[in-house]
């Protein structure tokens, strides 16, 4: 069975698509595009689609990943184009590559890079909050999880946190100053998400953004010792055309 | 003058509410057009939550029909949940369309589709959020013309103060005609303002403009008469009927939501209308005559609809789908075509006969087996004669047992409670029937692993039906009967365990009854309930019976009437009913005769297979029954891409 790994993006208004919503839309797109998807065995066969951890509803992403299994060989370039055309604009299929046999996508993802825009927050104020957060050994926050209310540390999972811009930039929407936060967070359980880090900043420095911040996942992959994130599809890309291996 | 999108403001609120995806649009099939190049702009509303409103056939059809015109723009809007409503008020965000997030107040027309009366309070929320005055008489040329349609618009009197106009019946041609009138009036420079436009609409004789009619009352509270208050509008307004459904194959580009909705499937109406003549069924009475879509058009629509949408389920819809003259060929033809794919086909099965099971089996060839539902509606043979549901007990049991023998483990049975002339005994018969079904099913299959669910709805008398004169049961009587029924079902532990019991309490039905047969005075009750916070009355978690009772008690005595007067009171033959000036084609004398026949438990045949019984519709509306068979077949021409 050929397996194809796909990077997709959730952009603009469609960042409010939940993971379940996306999964349904993707299955419909597979049918519309006529992709020869393979099905699981059993009484109610399911199409072979598996997802890497999905960004929370409302968070945009440039780097979501999934893998599909096919019953007939297809050209990943054509698969990308046809799936992208079959999905609403804003749910965009960015790249598709054939998976190297014997490897697993999940094994190649242990961290995410996020960018959070905080309209109405001065970069200085954010800088001070970030300093307090970095200095703390542990920052406990509370969130409702599937297991009920849980208190967990947000500091430990954060590999890097910095304020990247002083310029009053991308919030053309509100026309007010906007601080931007860059974050690298390791994948842990329970997962630490952008809003958990923001909750952490509230705990350590009373940071209260006046309007809802806007988060985007920029990358997912393996975190190197140098703090870089390795693209999980890197190892699958191959100069050899399909079929000649 | 272009109209800016409110999305930037809305976007700030979306992270703070539940299920934001329902407000962002972006569905496949959605159309966004340039505002300035359109000459006539419609906002179409389904006055309930997006998850219920999006799949609505009526709105999807009108949306597509209108957007096919190059100079017309149609966008959709739905009721917003209270969490968003609160934030919109706080931040001054108006009611918006989901397509381009334009403010509803900026459109020329706001068309609202009322499938149920329980959407009335949501209309008021939307008007208020849109900045449109609640009362039609306070509106100016700056405000959209608010037009009601859908089945509830056959008696729009309770919302007469809030709408500018109402259309009875099929909307395909009506919206085109209205569009033409608005286009011409705007091109002439809007002569005579709003009044002139409404007058031009009223003169078509198929658009009802309530403000041009006065209602006089008798001292005892009944209506004396409803008459035009100006010379140039018709005495009666007639319903619209779309003939030749093959020429109207909509939806061609069905809306495919990202959000989860009540149904995700491509729905194709295989026919409109129904002449089985169930006396409680407003949908059947007001959509006559029967007009079939041909087998070939159905096949074509299914093929193109699936290709466009990527849906994996097809619904073959109508009021009684097994009655299509070529239903057997449609089902087997489609089953052949989609064999080996993971497309599943379904038919809302309600007819109680073995043929239905044959069809269901045909459709489940592909693996997935949808539930089987039968609707005997009445528990006793006697009450089934009263409501004209011609099913004998033997038929019912034989049919259900056939289903069990063919592998179905679970069957749903629909009944009503509170029907005219009903006694406790009629309702208790439901338990006996259900017991018998399980007993016979166990005997036939030799298995204890079979179940049936008994689902009970409260009867609500509707305008333009033979039961429009009937009295409703009080909620206490209904609730008491349902309690007794439940006890009776469980009186046999072994059988009772195999029977599920679902019901609605009597209270919401009583309010639906008030709204269904209400007149203009009921508008004040709706307004008061809304002011007191009434929203989403179709949802039990939002509906408050007390709020309606209190509002009725505060408002109605001022008119010398009360809640009971509208609901539990039986009307007599001579009473002027609030909708008598609205013509569904049904002859009032025929309806009265059918009501009398009902009381003497006399049944009425179906005019599709027996001679015309003169209900009045065809001559009044200049329509005719349009049915097959065409004799054509669905050939498996092109092998559908195998996706499995
Ligand atoms: C028949 C019926 C069914 C049948 C077939 C549905 C069908 N044909 O689409 C079946 C059994 C499948 C069914 C299923 C369900 N139904 Co149903 N159904 C109905 C019923 C009785 C008629 C609908 C119908 O014939 N539609 C056909 C379309 C084309 O007609 P239409 O919408 O009336 O629109 C035409 C005209 O009225 C007019 N028009 C409409 N709006 C407007 C507006 C303007 C401005 C103008 C000018 C004209 C106009 O133009 C349209 C085109 O000609 C309605 C009740 C009613 N009175 O409408 C309930 C109703 C719509 N269903 C309802 C429900 C809840 C359901 C289910 C969710 C039940 C369930 N739990 O599964 C499902 C989901 C259906 C789906 N969305 O796919 C509810 C909706 C409740 C709500 N809160 O809004 C209703 C209102 C019944 C009720 N009172 O509870 N249903
Ligand atoms: S007028 Fe006659 S043929 Fe037409 S719907 Fe009524 S009974 Fe049937």
What does this structure look like?
The complex is a heterodimer of chains A (245) and B (644). Chain A contains four helices and eleven strands; from the N terminus they run βαββαββαββββαββ. Chain A is an alpha+beta fold and 245 residues long. Chain A has two domains: 2-99, 2-Layer Sandwich (Alpha-Beta Plaits); 108-229, Alpha-Beta Plaits (2-Layer Sandwich). In chain A, strands 1, 2, 3, 4, 5, 8, 9, 10 and 11 form a nine-stranded mixed β-sheet that branches. A two-stranded antiparallel sheet of chain A has the order 6-7. In chain A, a hairpin with a 2-residue loop joins strand 6 and strand 7. The mean pLDDT of chain A is 91. In chain B, the strands form six sheets. In chain B, strands 2-1-3-4-5-6 form a six-stranded mixed β-sheet. A four-stranded parallel β-sheet of chain B has the order 15-16-17-18. A three-stranded parallel β-sheet of chain B has the order 10-13-14, with helices on one face. In chain B, helix 5 links the parallel strand 3 (109-113) and strand 4 (145-149). Chain B is α/β, with parallel strands linked by helices. Chain B is built from 22 helices and 19 strands. In chain B, 35% of the residues lie in helices and 14% in strands. Chain B has two domains: 7-238, 3-Layer(aba) Sandwich (Rossmann fold), CATH 3.40.50; 245-521 and 561-621, pyruvate-formate lyase- activating enzyme (Alpha-Beta Horseshoe), CATH 3.80.30. The chains are: A alpha+beta (245), B alpha/beta (644). At the A-B interface, helix 1 of A face helix 1 and helix 9 of B. Iron/sulfur cluster (SF4) is lined by residues 275, 288-289, 607, 612-618, 625 of chain B.
Question: What characteristics describe this protein?
Answer:
heterodimer, A: 245 residues, alpha+beta, Alpha-Beta Plaits, elongated, B: 644 residues, alpha/beta, Rossmann fold, pyruvate-formate lyase- activating enzyme, six-stranded mixed sheet, four-stranded parallel sheet, 22 helices, 35% helix, binds cobalamin, binds iron/sulfur cluster, TIGR03936 family radical SAM-associated protein (chain A), DUF2344 (chain A), rSAM_sf (chain B), rSAM_horseshoe (chain B)
